Amino acid sequence: MAKRSKKWRVVALCVLLGMGALGYWAWHRINGPATKFTEENRVLYIATGADFQRVVDSLKKLEAITDEESFRFLCERKKYTQRIRPGRYRIARGMSMNALVNMLRAGEQEPVRVTFSNIDHLPELAGRLGRSLEPDSIAFLQAFLDPSLQEKAGLSSETVISLFIPNTYEFWWTTTPAGFIERMRLEHEDFWDQERRQKARAHGLSPAEVATLASIVQAETMKAVDAPQIAGVYLNRLRIGMPLQADPTLKFALGLDTLNRILDRDKDVVSPYNTYKNRGLPPGPINMPEPRFIDAVLDAPESDYLYFCARADLSGHSDFARTYEQHLVNARRYQRALNERKIYR
Fold first, then answer.
1. Could you give the percent of the chain with pLDDT greater than 90?
2. pLDDT digit string (tens) for 250-304?
3. Which of 32, 61, 110, 254 is in Cβ range 3.0-4.6 Å of 28 for a Cys bridge?
4. d(Cα 137, Cα 141) in Å, to the nearest integer?
5. CB–CB of 140/163 below 8 Å?
6. Domain limits, the chain
7. In sequence order, which residues have a C-beta less than 8 Å from that of residue 194 and are 6 or more positions away?
8. Crossing angle of helices 52-61/68-77, nearest 10°?
9. Average pLDDT of 327-339?
10. Which of 90, 94, 59 is nearest to 74 (CA)?
11. For residues 27 and 72, which has the higher predicted lDDT (pLDDT)?
12. What percent of the chain has pLDDT over 70?
């Protein structure tokens, strides 16, 4: 009897050890490293409307799961298979299957940093967003041109570009065009705080009008030191009813590149953006002005300058003049410099 009892104890111990080993193996399959890739991390994109099989296929392609059967079992146990959350997910090297499923089930996606500046028109912005977020560029552009969304933001088709303040923002990859516009509306409200609105009123301008003038200043110079003075020239012209005579608006009307020279015949073009023929501001911005140029308009110093011209050294800086006679001297000097360098239309 003693031998038989000892034998059963040995058998029981072996069974327990086997079960323990099996349990550890199962635990390790779920909680041990599940990825095969060697990079520090890889990014998984789950599109809106994707089903579970598509998620599995994407994970296999990324080498983020080594045991598909165990992954499917765990997802079913955690009720993930019918609750797919779209998004952009970062999977770390060595991440466990359990941690992966928990992340996907909770929808813990990683935000996307989107930077936009030096934007000339809305199709360009739509293209940049379409390369960074899930919706394509056409969907974004259609939203930008939607009259109802423009009306909600208190803007028109000509001024809607002023809604977008160039900066770096974080968005979920799944952000819809309508969601993007709403976020930009809130950012616009934050930017146009009481202090900036008060400065705009002091110039007799609305935020959209400030953006319009800022877009012209931005097109005139990328030299931050000259921008407030150039803005001051245009504000002086507005105040006395003098046409802005801004070459960038004429180039906008003609579809010319910023480097093209303006000829006298160009000034006869029929367009509301021809600020040689029409007094006051054009209907809207000619590009998406950056904050520093908006502030250049708001903080423009008082002066009696009515003219400015690019310097003949082609440094990008400007020479300012109080009289038309002095302006002609500066302009002829600059034109000679262009001719000497064979810079023609």
1. 73
2. 999 998 876 667 788 889 899 999 999 999 999 999 999 999 999 999 999 999 9
3. 32
4. 6
5. no
6. 32-110, 115-191, 198-340
7. none
8. 140
9. 88
10. 59
11. 72
12. 89
pTM recorded for the entire structure: 0.84
Per-residue pLDDT tens over the stretch 110-139: 999 999 999 999 999 999 999 999 999 999
Q: Are 150 and 156 in contact (CB under 8 A)?
A: yes
AA identity, residue 328: L
- Residue 289 near residue 218 (C-beta atoms within 8 A): yes
Where residue 255 falls (left for φ over 0; alpha for ψ -120 to 50; beta otherwise) is left
Which among 236, 230, 235, 229 has a CA at the least distance from the CA of 248? 230
Give the chain's end-to-end CA distance (angstroms, integer): 111
Give me the CATH code for the 32-110 domain, please.
3.30.1490.480
B/e letters for 166-189, b = 16+ CB within 10 Å, e = fewer, are beebebbbbbbbeebbeebbeebe
- Residue 222 is predicted with a pLDDT of 82
Angle, alpha carbons 273-141-260 (nearest 5°):
35
